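Onboarding guide, step 5: your first structure request.
Type a short instruction followed by the sequence, for example:

Predict the 3D structure of this protein.
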Amino acid sequence: MYSVRARFQCATLCWELLTDITFADIQAAAARIRGVAKRTPVLTSRSFDKEAGVSAFFKCENFQTGGAFKIRGAANFLYQIPKADLPRGVVAFSSGNHAQAVAIAAASVGAQATIAMPHDSPRSKMEATKGYGARIVIYDRFTEDRVAVGKKLAEETGATLVPPYDHPWILAGQGTAAMELLEEIPDLDALVVVIGGGGLMSGSSIAAKALRPGIRVFGVEPADANDTYLSLAAGKRIEIPPPATIADGLRSQIPGEITFPIVQKNVERIILVTEEEIRAALKYLLTRMKMLTEPSGAASAAAVLAKKLPPEVKRVGVILSGGNVDYEVLAGL
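The system replies with structure tokens like these:
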């Protein structure tokens, strides 16, 4: 567990790791973001349970404000920026869901958001981000470093950089999703969460272990975007080339500096899912459960549907992380 104090300098956020991010931080985040983040429903499906051989409880962040869990962390971050710094705006880098979340949170506090987005971001996410009032700056994720792009924009404008996952305020906000799930369904054997940079997993694992210490936590990555899987095996952060998975929200190349130690401590193992398994889960959720998810959002369900959990796990919480997908992509899948 990890905690921080934060300080601001030249309108750009800096932070120093001091002690632990605690469950109390997650509870405080829940109160702070209540006005913008929804308490999303927990849904079940008898047909899914029969197919997967478990009792699954889906935390539906695909119904969240902005279509994904990201508003939880973004709002918790934005709402703690000193008011004197807000007129200089905020900057973020994201392929879509964090971009939308920062744009929504920025609008709610009257700040201008500038978002660096890769050229191959899903069109629906890019259009939605613009629709929420953000300024978009395009970069090439194959030739440019998104962190460097974001830092440069922040330095040029004096804006505050809002990282997508690797910051305690982001983690605390994301952890509210699992907190809500465990408050509603307390007797879970396991929690299944997708891992991109690790923000959702880190915050969720802290909340889950606080509410149910014996719960087993499993991460899910696409087999083609397995940076956390490789990093856990190596015992250190491993960087991979830009992955080409259909799960665009899980295309991280290296685990976060803050998130990785939390994953090491709290996550039992990483389950890898194939592109075909992600497609099958997305199709099942849409056609059988009438729920639209994006490929990244369906990856957690894919691990369960493919029966990749230990056989003794019977009651499992599954966070569906988002539902933003281009309709052309959906039709192709």
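Each response can be followed by summary notes, for example: The longest helix spans residues 168-184.
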